[in-house]
Amino acid sequence: MRVLVVEDERRMAAALRRGLQAEGFVVDLAHDGEDGLHQARHGEYDVMVLDIMLPRISGYNVCKQLRAEENWVPILMLSAKDGEYDMADGLDLGADDYLTKPFSYVVLVARLRALLRRGAHRRPSVLRAGDLALDPARRRVTRGETPVELTPREFALLEFLIRHHDEVVSKTEILEHVWDTFDTDPNVVEVYVGYLRRKIDVPFSRNALQTVRGAGYRLAGDGG
Amino acid sequence: MRVLVVEDERRMAAALRRGLQAEGFVVDLAHDGEDGLHQARHGEYDVMVLDIMLPRISGYNVCKQLRAEENWVPILMLSAKDGEYDMADGLDLGADDYLTKPFSYVVLVARLRALLRRGAHRRPSVLRAGDLALDPARRRVTRGETPVELTPREFALLEFLIRHHDEVVSKTEILEHVWDTFDTDPNVVEVYVGYLRRKIDVPFSRNALQTVRGAGYRLAGDGG
DNA sequence: CAGGATTCTCAGCCACCTCTCAGGCCGGGT
DNA sequence: ACCCGGCCTGAGAGGTGGCTGAGAATCCTG
Known about the structure:
The structure is a homodimer. By secondary structure, chain A is an alpha/beta fold. Chain A has helices at about 10-20, 35-40, 60-70, 85-90, 105-120, 150-165, 170-180, 185-200, and strands at about 1-5, 25-30, 45-50, 75-80, 95-100, 125-130, 130-135, 140-145, 145-150, 170, 210, 215-220. In chain A, the strands form 3 sheets. A 5-stranded parallel sheet of chain A has the order 2-1-3-4-5, with helices on both faces. In chain A, strands 6-7-8-9 form a 4-stranded antiparallel sheet, covered by helices on one side. Chain A has a 3-stranded antiparallel sheet with strand order 10-12-11.
């Protein structure tokens, strides 16, 4: 599990790093708010420990900024101050938990694990067209209730078609977006369209993946 | 044993703390329902004493909320003698025991110990996927009823996979989160996936740890 | 420092995937 | 009907990704 620790006091930061590494975490450090914000944006962290009193950008603003950017990494806030007001403030800004210094090391680890267990709020996005459903994250395709096994190329092709369902897409477009070339033999598209049809078309049902002679292909969606 | 006491009357709270500490418990206090809910969520308590009449959020709702979040910490409820709710109400909402004020410490402690002995309904602190269970705190893994011995690296890999069960995770993602590098030979992931399979895959059963060629790996989990 | 556990590298092997090719099919125009 | 161009498809060669056994390097522990 990968954790970003944003803490300006060097001794505290070093202690946290050692301790968390001993617990099996992969630890990155940032020593001010700007650095922390930057690292949080570009690294994929499972959880984040964020001090409030920081040079350049305060922990409050780091948190606020990340949430504004739709970054939902679980955040545990640390503060030297005490009082309910601070805590409510931090939680309002989108932190997931809050700890007041001095804190017990055991408690910190326990709460980090609690955050990890809950997980970040993630967005489920499933693409649909007709009775076809494609989940890019899970890399899973179903027709109705039955799962469909696709090779990577087939999957990429179907994803492109389903994103443009009900539109006619030319073989050239497909080559550009799925194969990343434009001067290959378009026959390869025909071949893969054939593969897809064998896997996603139900016998005795109208074809979901239609040929538009001279123009390209169209994947029929529910709307039209 | 770690106990969380949620009680708004300061005198009563202080008395409970002293009494329970004398019995050898580690005691945390919360003075209203919101605080109590928060602490219960983020701390790992072995048992919880929860007053019903509380500012902000009632004890009933704290309990209900925790159970809705699959938090199965044993809860002992406290009520004033003339409360508007009765015992059946509290137990219906998922409390494990119920005491009416005034009560004797001896009885309180006896019932807490009984709860601890009985254990919670279930320990939800473990991650699950299919018949695999991984307890991050105890660093323990079981397949069904049988324990599985894992090395630290294997454990970290399985933890990452189980947290993303049903999703396809690429070797690069795995390298970043488990190995803390991104430019190492991905073959090391393949090797460790192989190790894991030998330890967690049951013969004659469908593979829990599936290869998604060209994309990564997916740990199959049954909704949990 | 010895012995064992753990992590990692390497190379060979295998299965699957990708793409090419050639022949056949089909639709439309005349 | 006939032809032509676009499309489909079966077969198969070649490439690539992934798996694994062997063993080296490293870490841990007594």
